Amino acid sequence: MAEEVRMPQMGESIAEGTIVRWLKQVGDAVKRDEPLFEISTDKVDAEIPAPVSGVLSEIKVKEGETVAVNTVVAVINGAGAQPVATAPKPEDAPAASAPAASAPAAPTVQAAPPAQSKPAADAQSEAPAAPRHDDQPPVAQPGATPQPETAAADSVDELRRLRSSPLVRKIAEEKDVDISRIQGTGISGRVTKNDILSYIENRAVAPAAPPAAQPAAPAMATPPAAPQAPAAPVRAPQPLSVPAAMPAEVGPPPFADGDRVQIEPMSIMRRKIAERMIESHRVSAHVYSVIEVDYTATAKLRDQLKGDYLERDGVKLTFLPFVIKAVIEGIKKWPIINSSVWGDQVVYKQDINIGVAVALDWGLIVPVVRNADEKSLLGLARAVNDLGDRARNKKLKPDEVQGGTFTITNPGVFGGLMGLPIINQPQVAIIGVGGIKKRPVVINDAIAIRQIGLLTLSYDHRIIDGAVAEQFLAIVRDRIEAADYKS
């Protein structure tokens, strides 16, 4: 029996995912729950396990391609089944057809790899695929020879279209642009929104010179200078890699000729984070409140418990579970903090699902501790450590990064005094935990050394007023200062 592998649903608002890397190749044996491929969305980078054991017989979606949720990306046959190498065919076809065809046929068929397709395509920029076939028949007498080349050329164009998003294809259709002529700067040569917009802009500027060269179009295929002319503007878009949510008028590159710069495209996760942060600032009226907290009593309790937690339960106890406990108490007193805005209505969430921001080398991710109000201090510590470890190792499950109702981020762990975080939509508030350090403070008209830290609350002023925010923070502060975590 053949089992279809589909792009999983990675979140409530996620409609597509990008395949970053295949961990198995066609013909490889796979075991159930063994990592099969790695995907990236705006919420999570994750390794997706094989649903069944067997042989990976077909890969339908290549690395770097973005497809909709539930799209079939691969097929696994039962053990002992023969692989059906349909996806790799377009790349294998050039090697198979090159010996049968003459020397001129090789550049035409080898247009499949994105990095090498441009010179061949640009050399015949004004000529469609038909003239190529007109050149081939005199060399390849058998009628069967042109058919594989036609199929290969069609598959190359199809692959190029697949390497672009629906938005890019829509722009190409509206502006009458052949996507196969654009050098993609995305993963595996994928044509991004910025690539096509830059191509259109360069094409609009180019007509100043081409009018005189227009009649000489047939002769353009012979001079070697012709392919290089389109190649120059194609490379220009690389520095202009911006999130899709940014305006199309990105302006000139942020560097001058001769400047020493290194240009790298944003990762998929980084582009998605940029989109979400811009969207959040556009949607929510951000306001910020800051409160000073004395962690001395909580620090003493932590010192008492952390040895037992580590030795008995194997759990590292940080300040974060204590903050979560205090935040839960504040939410119970002020449920508006745990709500969302839906048009002109307020949706109060009955569950308290706390998102905890985890910094990764390649971005930021927010796994969720579900029903946090039902967990003990030890349970929260275990959940936070587990989610953080699996986030860094790309082992999170899709449902572990969705459904959050309130978010906590901890810039203080890196030494920051405080931070003003952006709200994680569709939530209405997020708290930032600043660094906790010993500082001199005045207590009962005397100077004492205490463990002091700052808490910052970013909230949506559409439904949360400053008075509510300050009272919420006061409850969180009082719980921490009293080290009251019994409930």
Key phrases:
4-stranded antiparallel β-sheet, 34% helix, 487 residues, Chloramphenicol Acetyltransferase, OB fold (Dihydrolipoamide Acetyltransferase, E2P), alpha+beta, single chain, 3 domains
Quick synopsis:
The chain has 487 residues and is α+β, with helices and mostly antiparallel strands.
What does this entry look like structurally?
This protein is α+β, with helices and mostly antiparallel strands. It folds into three domains: 3-77, OB fold (Dihydrolipoamide Acetyltransferase, E2P), CATH 2.40.50.100; 181-278, no CATH class; 284-482, Chloramphenicol Acetyltransferase, CATH 3.30.559. The chain is built from 14 helices and 19 strands. Strands 9, 12, 15, 16, 17, 18 and 19 form a seven-stranded mixed sheet that branches. A four-stranded antiparallel sheet has the order 1-8-6-3, with no helix packed on it. It has a four-stranded antiparallel sheet with strand order 5-4-2-7, with no helix packed on it. Helix 12 crosses helix 14. The longest helix has 18 residues, at 296-313. The radius of gyration is 29 Å and the shape is globular. It starts with a strand and ends in a 5-residue tail after the last helix. 34% of the residues are buried. The model is unreliable at 85-154 and 207-247 (pLDDT under 50).
What's the name of the CATH homologous superfamily of the largest domain?
A: Chloramphenicol acetyltransferase-like domain
So what's the CATH class of the largest domain? Answer: Alpha Beta
Helix content: 25-40%
Q: How many domain modules?
A: 3
Strand segment tally: 19
C-alpha Rg (nearest Å): 29 Å
